[in-house]
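@channel sequence for tomorrow's demo:
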Amino acid sequence: MMESLLTPFGYEYLVRALWVCALVGGVGGLLSCFVTLKGWSLMGDALSHAVVPGVAVAGILGLPFSVGAAFAAMLATAGMGFLRARTPLREDAVIGIVFTTFFALGLLLLSLRPAGINLRTIVFGNVLGIDPADSRQLVAISFGTLAILAVRWRDLVLFCFDTNQARSIGLNTAVLHGTLLTLLSATAVASLQTVGAVLVVATLVTPGATAYLLTDRFGRMLILSGTLGASTAACGAYLSYFVDGSTGGCIVVLQTAGFLAAWVFAPRHGLLGNRWRRGWRRTGGTP
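structure tokens (generated this afternoon):
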């Protein structure tokens, strides 16, 4: 029994998939705290779909996928900002228009010029097929994101919590806005090969939402969310070997299960915790 559980560690490609998933999942978990605080879940969804045409063009030109994806994400971000400033449309409408347009453009390019790119891999991910060169790119993206978060996380927290307060104390909110979008884009690019374009938004939202239910302190929220992102990503990749299922699907299902558990059992914000406090108050106690 024990030998069968250790079988995945005998395959180099599976070991690579495990640590890549853990790294990308941990970075996504950290960033999801800022996404949750800022209310940018739809922005994460937009960027994850907007990178598809960049991947298609990179494949046609023979460039690394990460280069094309990053360029497409920046172009989509600029397009959303331009439409938001030049039209009376609400931000959610602008995001919806841009990300569906970019996604459709990517699908069109892939159908016209496949260039050896598997559409299923882009849409659903294929971390088990990742090669060492792609692994190095993901490591560079992940550690670059971690470095920026380590330096600017306090400013980003204030920007996400209260933009006007951040501006009043002299912070450049435009730079912080661009920084957060850039980090989101980079993480979407990194997550593309692990869970695919369809499920990237889950890795950028669910760990932070789960941690939000478990604590009211942002420092603890970062630790919890990063740990949840890394552990569920690694466990999902490990479990996918035994169930012979989608790695991205396993990862997101585990993250959702963690969220549901927190929603029910969290001490302060869970359903049972709220019920216990209400019952305690009715009996004259204080929680």
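heads up for whoever presents: The radius of gyration is 20 Å.
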